[in-house]
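Question: Now follow the chain.
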Amino acid sequence: MKIEALICSSKPTHHALPTARHENNRRILSTAADTAVATQKVTPHDSLSILAEQRKKRPTAPHLTIYKWQITSVASIMTRMTGGALAGGFYVFGSAYLLSPLLGWHLDSASIAAAFGALPLAVKVLAKFAVAMPFTFHSFNGVRHLAWDLGLGFKNKEVIRTGMFMTGVSVASALGLALLL
């Protein structure tokens, strides 16, 4: 009611005739004034349940499950993961090494070599592979990215071929490093 009264009392300035814009605004506002809106008090718990029900009716965006896995996406994800693993391992071991005298731990080189030497051969190879694989993968993929920075190897076939080659070289070199006694 108040909106309609406001529209009816407003007059165009400078005694100009009403334009289409004025008529459009009058129609929109009078339609909004004619629509009844009911409100009610809701507890915070009920409002959360209403929100949860509304979210169930929303369309969901596509997820990773609809995409076909490709060497480019896998290499990108693995590069980020191996970089995080290498950085995390570096910081954890570095912090433990620095704190070891305060905590009474023996993390000097001789103690670590003696502990590692006491492990069974299969565990040694697996442990070395677990350290070597992220390092080799991240390093070789870094070289591939440096080539991309130079503008080399951007065609789809070249990207796929270098991705497969880089993965193979990473696994082979990690195995080679792990099998060194």
In short: The longest helix spans residues 71-103. The radius of gyration is 33 Å. The CA atoms of residues 27 and 136 lie 69 Å apart. Confidence is low (pLDDT under 50) at residues 1-16.
